[in-house]
Design brief:
The protein has 242 residues and is mostly helical. It is built from ten helices and no strands. The protein has helices at 7-17, 19-42, 46-55, 69-79, 84-100, 104-128, 150-169, 173-196, 202-229, 231-238. The protein is globular and about 65 Å long. Pfam families: PAP2.
Length: 242
C-alpha cells in the first residue's frame, strides 16, 4: 500500500538517522564549501555575484531596492532573526528550558555546540577576509567581513540544531518534519534578505548555508556518539519532560 506524500520522508529519514548517512552528508557539505570558497578566493564568482546584487536594485537609483515599499522594511525585520542578539536570546531560552526540565547535560551540549559554531564562523570570516559588496549602497549596518555570511551560517547552525533537539521530543514523524522544515525556512529567508539588503553576495550566503548545515550535521553525529557512550546522557534524553 502506498503511503502517499509521506513516502519520500521515510527514505530521507532512514538516510539521515544512520551515522554513515550523516557522515556522508557532512563530507559532502565540507567538500562543497571548499570548492565554493576556492572559487570565491580566485574571484571566479565576482562577476555573477555583482550582477545578481545589482539586479535587485532599480536602474534609475541603485539605492532603491526593487519591489513594493514595504519589502525592504520586511527584509530588515526578517534579517534580524539571524542576528546575534536574537539567536543568543533564543539559545538562552532553550537552554533555560532544558535546565528547568533537569536535562543539564543536554543543555550544556546544546550551548557548547551553538557557541562552537559561532566561533567557527568568526574564524572563517577572518581567514577569507572578503570585503562587503560595494556595487550598491547597504540597506542595513554591517560590522564584519563578507564570506561566509554570518547571518546565514549562524541561523543555519542555531535553528537546525534547536530544530533537531525539539524534534526529539515529538512522537510523530510529520511533527519532526515540520520542525526541521521551519528551521530550514527561517535559515533560507534570513540568507535571502542579506543579498536583498546589499550586504552580502549570493556566494557569501551559499557558503554560510553549507558551512552551517555541515556543522549542524556534525553536531548531530557527535550527539548520537556521546549518547551511546554515556549512560547518564542516554537516560536523560529518554526521560519524559515533567
Amino acid at each position: 500500500m502506498s503511503r502517499g506524500p509521506w513516502r519520500w520522508v521515510s527514505g530521507w529519514d532512514v538516510m539521515v538517522t544512520r551515522p554513515l548517512g550523516l557522515l556522508l552528508l557532512v563530507v559532502a557539505c565540507v567538500l562543497g564549501f571548499v570548492v565554493l570558497s576556492d572559487e570565491v578566493h580566485e574571484g571566479d564568482t565576482q562577476d555573477i555575484d555583482e550582477r545578481i546584487v545589482r539586479s535587485l536594485r532599480r536602474d534609475e537609483d541603485p539605492a532603491l531596492p526593487r519591489g513594493p515599499w514595504w519589502l525592504s522594511e520586511t527584509a530588515r525585520d526578517v534579517t534580524s532573526l539571524g542576528g546575534f542578539p536574537v539567536l543568543a536570546l533564543l539559545t538562552a531560552a532553550v537552554c533555560g528550558f532544558l535546565l528547568v526540565a533537569r536535562r543539564y547535560r543536554t543543555s550544556l551540549f546544546v550551548l557548547s555546540s551553538i557557541v562552537g559554531g559561532w566561533i567557527l564562523n568568526a574564524a572563517l570570516k577572518n581567514l577569507f577576509h572578503r570585503p562587503r559588496p560595494s556595487v550598491v549602497p547597504h540597506l542595513t549596518e554591517t560590522m564584519s567581513t563578507s564570506f561566509p555570511s554570518g547571518h546565514a551560517m549562524l541561523s543555519a547552525i542555531t535553528y537546525l540544531t534547536l530544530g533537531a533537539l525539539l524534534a526529539q521530543f515529538a512522537e510523530h514523524r510529520r511533527v519532526k518534519v515540520y520542525l526541521l522544515a521551519v528551521a530550514l525556512v527561517l535559515s533560507v529567508l534570513v540568507g535571502c534578505t542579506r543579498v536583498y539588503l546589499g550586504v552580502h553576495y549570493p556566494t557569501d550566503v551559499l557558503g554560510g548555508w553549507v558551512a552551517g548545515l555541515a556543522w549542524a550535521l556534525f553536531v548531530t553525529v557527535a550527539a548520537r556518539t556521546v549518547r551511546r557512550r554515556s549512560p547518564a546522557l542516554r537516560e536523560e534524553a529518554q526521560r519524559p519532560v515533567e
